[in-house]
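Researcher: Last one for today. Full complex below.
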Amino acid sequence: MLKGHQSWVFENRPAIISTATVVGPFEGQGPLVNDFDIVHGDMYIGQDSWEKAEKSLLEESASKAIEKAGLTKDQIQFYFGGDLMNQIISSSFAARTLSIPYLGVFGACSTSMESLALAAYVVNYNGARHALAGTCSHNASAEKQFRYPTEYGSQKPSTAQYTVTGSGSAVLALEGSGPRVTAATIGRVIDMGITDPFNMGAAMAPAAVDTIQAHFRDLQIEPSYYDLIVTGDLSKVGYEIAGELFKRHNFPIDQTTYQDCGMMIYNYDKQNVQAGASGCACSAVVTYGHLLNRMKRGELKRLLVVATGALLSPLSYQQGESIPCIAHAVAIESE
Amino acid sequence: MAKQKNKKLTPTQQQYQRLASSKEPKRPVLKNCLRAFLAGGLICLIGECIRQAFIAFGGFDEKTAANPTVAVLVLISVILTCLGVYDKIAQWAGAGTAVPVTGFANSMASSALEHRAEGIVLGVGAGMFQLAGSVIVFGTFAAFIIGLFYAVFIPDFAGGGH
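Model: Here's the assembly. Have a good evening.
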């Protein structure tokens, strides 16, 4: 049901009946390693190109999530997926393997929550008995497409972020047990004129703040309603800016705990990741792995995940365009 | 330029950009310069050692030793690139590893490696010059302009005949 300007409240409370997360070797060295289902030791995942490796990650997490739900592929009606590659090839090619009716979505790194919100909407209104939402990213394929060849020796500034190699998928259903998706807020595209592709955190922070404020305005609740609010991949620089924006807008974010997935997955002291993590998989693996595990242990009751995406292309910034950004929020509550 | 760009931004955007740049960690320019000096200097020192070795043991003279020296440096750079080490050194060294000939070799080798998946012709062949192409174009153009300068003002020098 539409509530306010841009939010949905899911009265039937679709359940996330299973999730699966798959990550690469570098994420396996991070502090959240025990929250992932599969940790690969090889960046190529046994494939012969970065793009194929990325597709394999998504295939694995999707199959694993379906398996964990005790279902088979033919019992999933719709699959919502997206990624960072041109023409979202990783998702579409994974959908070819899965052969589940597929809707490709693109919201850059906000795809994780965009796909989850859409899947929850469809399940809530009985559009599907089971729906699958999934996304993936790969550090090397993202570097190759958006920046420089992976082995090229360029010095990254301290605002740069490290794209997560991994994939996260979730299966939703009305029947069954699991954390409930209760609401979602679809973000507007916000562009504050930032042009530096090595400073995505600063570009995305206003979009995150805009969506978070819209969520509380639409649902007419206070931040204290949630035990934890996380943004997707603002990392150190964007997180600080978001904090400052909340203060300037007199938004009482300090009623609750506010964190960022991009600052959780790596160990800053041991891993050289500059400002932190980014990529579609960042918010996906942290949410579907770490945060939902915390919810299952009873540490979290109500969680708001605000995945942030920078909607640029390599061509757009070479042509001097600024970076438009978006954020989608999904509320997840324990049963 | 910067002012002209700012004019297109709304006051809110300008205000935000001031906030964003205040939160941006400052680039450690002095530290970067020092590291670039040390790393670049070390590469040149290694190059000089190789050159002297070619003169002492390889039967080359002062002038002809330059070519095999460059070839050895390029080879070392390509090997380090293929082993996945060069980019890690470069994160520390910055311009120190980018400016010498080793950086040029790295840009070609890394592009070739990256595009190997797209095949030999369209991948390696075309992709190799993704980064190096502009260096070659503007390098050749700059050499042409300087050549013209010599031809006009110091014709003896440009005309050859040592």
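The mean pLDDT of chain B is 90. The two ends of chain B are 46 Å apart (CA to CA).
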